[in-house]
Design brief:
254 residues; globular; 4-stranded antiparallel β-sheet; Rossmann fold; ATP-binding
Amino acid sequence: METICSIKNLSFSYNSSKKVLDNISFDIHKNEIVGILGKNGSGKTTLLNLITGFLNNYSGEITLYRQNIKDFSLTSRAKTIAYIQQSKLTIPDYYNVEDFILDGRRPFRKFGFYNKKDYDILDKIINQCSLDSFRKRQVSSLSGGELQRCIFAKALMKQCELLIFDEPTSAMDIKYQKDFFELTSIAKQNLEAGILLSIHDINFAVKYCDRLIVLDSGSIIYDNYSKWITIDILKKAFDTDFSETCSEEKYFYY
């Protein structure tokens, strides 16, 4: 499998008293969806912010295509990584859906203008994400699930091979969660992308992710391509009791 991003012996702390991440190592490959599980405070968001360059002053190494992330300019990083954060977006009132999604090509603009390639990609992504009927709607009029679909489409506009999402389904109802993961699977196939996402729903993670990594107190306690996690691992990671059931060789946790 071709490696896109490699994390080696990564440690980080916001102050000298406690490590938020402690000696983390794993690779992200082309054509795989990697889910990061762990309770609040386990280091998930910090890990994503380090990989995308939003945080520095860490020990260890993060490389993209065998090049140290610290050697990337802001523009190069913006072209190479599509990152959707948890933080609330500030969107101009005059933006319609088409404007908003097209803005995903901003790092690639020449002399401040979009070109034919940008608009061709826009048409393709809007079609892939079933947003044709939304093109001229004001972004401010969208529901939470509709907006999240547009945010996902905007991320795809970069056409890059590394997509990173921080709790992308946390504000969605079940229908939009299913839609999101189906779109993610399509993006993986079309772009041969490596997709890394933090996720709070264990059952969606087990169903849709190719590989699961579980964090506990800043350390990896599980990293496997299996569609099954032991109850002991879940108890340790989330500090609560779990039960499981199996139907047609699929596991469900509650």
